[in-house]
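Data deposition worksheet. Section B asks for the primary sequence of the deposited chain exactly as it was used as input, without tags or linkers unless they were present during the calculation. Section C holds the resulting structure in token form. Section D is free text for depositor observations; keep each observation to a single sentence. Incomplete worksheets are returned to the depositor.
Section A, Depositor: J.P.
Section B:
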Amino acid sequence: MINPMGGGFLEQPWSRRKFLATTAGMAGVPLLAQDALSRELKKQGKSVILLWLAGGSSQLETWDPKPGAVTGGPFQAIQTSTPGVYISELMPKMAKRFKDTCIIRSLNTKNGDHGGGAQLMMRGRRDEASLKYPDMGAVLAKELGNPQSQVPDYVSFFLQTEGRDFSGSGFLGARYSPMELSKSVQPENIDRPDHISTSDFIDRMALRDLWSTQFEKGRSSGVLASHQQAYGRVKGLMDSKKLFDVSLEPQKVRDRFGPTQFAEQVLIARRLAEAGVPFIRVARAWWDSHGQNFETHQEMVPELDHVMATLLDDLEERGMLKNTLVITLAEFGRTPSINSSLGRDHFASAWSTTLSGCGIVGGSVYGKTDTKGEKVSDGEIGAARLLATIYQALGINPQKNYYVGSRPVPLTDPETKPVKEVLA
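Section C:
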């Protein structure tokens, strides 16, 4: 059940409720009005930081503990800053700063396969034989990204996940594909070639701009505009390399986040969001605890707790949290039953996710599982409703249509409704 702590906030120039009320019927609004709403949304500078818990973290050792139950495991539950709401004792920092977070404890997504589960949770639905759907990163890059921006629209850190990256822009095309970082936190192939000096590079760019400007005189062409935009974007991507360099952050900020690779990537994610990148995913692996589940989570959950709480504090102090949505999500959760290796196996029938910040009722819980955590007892939702809720929290109509040829394709499956109790 919802615990409506945290309230809403006003955004300029429109209040959030007015904006959502306007966009709710957007599928039937004339295209010119839709374009105006889209431009308004892009001006608000919203971003999403997705903390992807690759392999499937245990809801019982994080957001939905069951102490005392035969399935509960050895860890206790502690009360959060919202009276009556408890999370795992492994997350004391998030328990204290729960005011901006909503836990959804009632996911039933029915897919316990790593690849299939990851695709489902990133897309909200399964691909068709003749249609590949974009994941939420590509959708948000299109919906929230500024076409004139020279920073990336979608960045995905997958440095620890054994190549299991299931992102994709689908029918939206390569323009909205992620910048995938799987070897280093620094993007590859965007440096100026060593044999070209800085002054020569500047001169070459100036000469290209001059020739292009002269060529464009008296001509009007979408191809020309796209060509110019592409060159400007490449230069912007080269210039944006500094955003991935955490050595440019004050030492006290770096110390605050911590020395781990995950902490470093999350700090970079904040730098990217601050610079206007609409969607950043940071994967932390490997949560696939078929054996020694409790030791695995005793090591990894405190790191998540610290880094997530630090990120939310940092965003709030910078005035960014009202426009940044922070999500924790995985392919699925872990079984309530404990196997012979003291592990928990794949489990997609009753598990948890969290939403924090932009557009969310903070300090709240939606949905409920039974006393053993074996099934959803209240508020069951699937992947489609979760994505619809995420889109609506950001001011995007989840039933807005894209077009593949003449075929209208809504952002989420037809008739999918967001979980209104979660929305501020």
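Section D:
The chain is about 35% helix and 15% strand.
The longest helix spans residues 293-317.
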